[in-house]
Amino acid sequence: IEEKALDMAPNSFDDQYLGCRHMMEKELEELNRTEFVPNSNYTKAWKNATAILQNRSSELSVQAITLMAYTLPEPSLHEDLNKAVLTAGRSIDEYLNNFDFKVMHFLLSSALRSLRDAKPHQCYHVYRGINNTIYTAQRGETVRFGYFASSSLNRTRAEMYGNHTIFLVQTCYGVPIWDYALSYDHQEVLIPPFETFEVMNVTREKNRSVIELHAQAVCNKYNCQFVKEKHCKNQPCDFIADQSVSRDPLWGFILAATALA
């Protein structure tokens, strides 16, 4: 069991794509040609998610496939993605040249934003359990997870995933995704990388830490980074007021991705 300080995850890639999601959509098919590698966890998860949704006779949208693929226990796309997200923000070069989840990061970020925008914004009290790491923190600090953090409305369910650190979280940017998950009873709420929290309380036992976090604000060092690098070097880009991702299910993208899988 390792001990680790909870911090602001300074190397996280935390793009919110504010004002440029419609521009990013146009880049997906080209980006996917390099990121959708046969036999990768990304490809397998996408293919499996598509099949599950088809068997359920569910809506086959990019949003639905993205969230289903993320929540699948196997292959562990969520682990691969989050490990990469925590270091991709180290520099612009790191993101552009070494981050192989540009499409998935965008799709997942957009899905969470669309779900949040679809209903009046509300906050949730959730729980997150961690195994093999005892996190430390000081009351009053500002922290964030810095990756897509799964949590549950049910504490018992959360502790099944780990009990060396238990987070009691009030999140105002996390959204329920159980309608799109493999299992409804997990009552999963997914917290985006950019949400920040104030540490309200820390209780330390011998081999266990309980940390209470309250939603504070957002913090993102990056915004529309891929679009900026591709289109805005020689002329300034005017990122207009944020627009929701098109309700068009992007059939061209789905068909291309499924064919590659």
TrEMBL record:
Its EC number is 2.4.2.31. PROSITE patterns: ART, TR_MART. It comes from the Eukaryota. One of its GO terms (biological process) is response to antibiotic. Gene3D superfamilies: Toxin ADP-ribosyltransferase, Chain A, domain 1. One of its GO terms (molecular function) is nucleotidyltransferase activity. One of its GO terms (cellular component) is extracellular space. It catalyses: L-arginyl-[protein] + NAD(+) = N(omega)-(ADP-D-ribosyl)-L-arginyl-[protein] + nicotinamide + H(+). Keywords: Disulfide bond, Glycosyltransferase, NAD, NADP, Nucleotidyltransferase, Signal, Transferase. Belongs to the Arg-specific ADP-ribosyltransferase family. This is NAD(P)(+)--arginine ADP-ribosyltransferase. It comes from Zapornia atra (Henderson crake). The lineage of its organism: Eukaryota, Metazoa, Chordata, Craniata, Vertebrata. The gene is Madprt_5.
